[in-house]
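Note to self: the last two entries modelled the partners one at a time, which told us nothing about the interface. This time every component goes in together.
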Amino acid sequence: MEYDKSSVGKTITIYDIAEEAGVSASTVSRVLNGSASVRKEKKDRIQKLIEKYNFKPNALAKGLSDTATNTIGIIVADVRNPYYSALFVACEMAAEKAGYNVGLTNSLGEIDRECHELDLFVQQKVDAIIQMGGRVDDLITDDEYARKIRSVCTSTPVIVTGKLDKAPVYSVVIDEGAGMNLVMEHLISYGHEKIALVGGNMMVTSTFYKYRRYQENLKSRGIKERGEYVVNSAYDPESGYEAMNRIFELDDIPTAVIAINDFAASGIIRSIREHGMRIPEDISIVSFDNTYIADLTYPKLTSVDYNYKNYGQALIDTAIAVSMGKECPAFQTVEPKLVVRESSGPCKK
Amino acid sequence: MEYDKSSVGKTITIYDIAEEAGVSASTVSRVLNGSASVRKEKKDRIQKLIEKYNFKPNALAKGLSDTATNTIGIIVADVRNPYYSALFVACEMAAEKAGYNVGLTNSLGEIDRECHELDLFVQQKVDAIIQMGGRVDDLITDDEYARKIRSVCTSTPVIVTGKLDKAPVYSVVIDEGAGMNLVMEHLISYGHEKIALVGGNMMVTSTFYKYRRYQENLKSRGIKERGEYVVNSAYDPESGYEAMNRIFELDDIPTAVIAINDFAASGIIRSIREHGMRIPEDISIVSFDNTYIADLTYPKLTSVDYNYKNYGQALIDTAIAVSMGKECPAFQTVEPKLVVRESSGPCKK
DNA sequence: ATTAAATTTGAAATCGGTTTCAGACGGTCC
DNA sequence: GGACCGTCTGAAACCGATTTCAAATTTAAT
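The predicted structure of the combined assembly is written out below.
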């Protein structure tokens, strides 16, 4: 079968429908939205035409005249990271249930890109913006990013997954500290003391709070923190791999590694294997996010779980509530739990 | 620091800028777009105000009056699948270079959802829609999906990653047949004859063409096809795991498995391991997509690579060209290559 | 200094919807 | 039959940009 691809049909509008039905555009609009009663006879005629032409109202025009677009913008660091893709899908599902659409963009952790995307969503008149993987408030003074968020907030509500006192945003955050407590208790109960923290960037909220609690745990248990056991990097497998290789350059190798997330952990595992070590016999590894990766590595990863479905739901609920001007707690917390699998075990030495 | 979260500032418009600058909106628009010359003195005054208020023109209004929105809609089956997330990011990068924005939605393989998303993108007046993971043309008669695509095509150009003669769409497809040839040659050169094909759904174009070429390869080499060696499923790890478990229920177990993709392959590997078999000593496994997963499984996966960057670029180039009414080949092909890693080896028996 | 040519500018129409407002229509009740 | 009321309906204004068209202002040329 052959089609002429240049035959782009004329887009039909509410006026075309109105004309053919012999009514005014207002009436068609009323039928479309059920916003007022329309005489049955006309209603039927109009609906038939809508059906016939498969008419879909122009969302731009609708958004222009309405106050809301029923769209929520979501900015993640990188959808290729299974943590974000899982959370995004959870948000998408929650939004769908509520009759909202979502838009997605990747910041790739670059401030410029993030600012640009905030602008784009503002221009598109999304009802709210959810920004995942934000930067650490404590480390932000008055840089471009903070200024941008602050200016965006005046027109569009912003929900972040981090803590950010410097701007009027709403936060729905994972209690990273609680997660780290679970991890530390787990490892220390196995007798580990030489514990490394691998991956992540201290400018990112979640990483910063994990690190802080890591320090506190060591301190409260009288274990001295070793600077060389904390290796920063990005969040992907390759970065995890390289970070772990650096650990192996040390004279005294740790008996346990806390990976900043599963994504990086998969690279860490590869490094460990290539160094001829067994997991968990020689080195235990525990990570965060409990994505599908935790299930497919060998051995399977012990990982901190966030319940994506609930988390996504909470983010979307907040976004919708805030955009409709409802009262909403400015700070909400999601509790993590530890899923123990095969990658962690007793410290032999 | 405390902020009043209810203080949503008034959105300022081009008219506000115009008024304060003592010019007309037309002039502001001209400055904004550099579409015509404006006296330097006024221009400076306007730009200063734009800066001062951080004014960003309403994209809805702009889209309404312009013919284009500079946006491309992308529909994937599931961003959680690393194949799609990698391809999406590649598209996003290519689009950005060209000054376009992209929108993303997940169909989750459900026809209803897919149709709904096509409608949404049409309503949002995207300049083109890229639909990845399409259904098999040969198996489509006149179902809801084909009808929908056909009706969408009349208003918005559609680019698919499959073959679809039943509607005037553009195709940029991976040569799945060539990929399967590489895989079969590789396995057969290692002496394998009992080769299973695990995962995937024959309604999906790419899977269908892989299967066809699988059959042809067996036939041309005089190997009889065994129905029980072809197990369909979805494309995720869990589905791969279950599908492979079914293979293990057979009396005569294959010596090599072709996984429909890396994502499913990771589950297949788990099943093989749990059945006490070694890879590749007991069973070889080769898969498609060459995502980051191929590098993080143990052993690493031999996988067919598509060069995401080029592929994404080709999709976006086509989308942009078509949306601007430029001539464009209706059917383009991307050549795959095989990346050999550790999961495939000689057949022992 | 005039006039022609080029450059700037704003009013108004347009994109495709929604919504307010006032009038038309039909029915009910005395 | 007239007053009253509720249901429908369309004209017109509006949302926030762009763009055409013609007028106004400069600038250049003679």
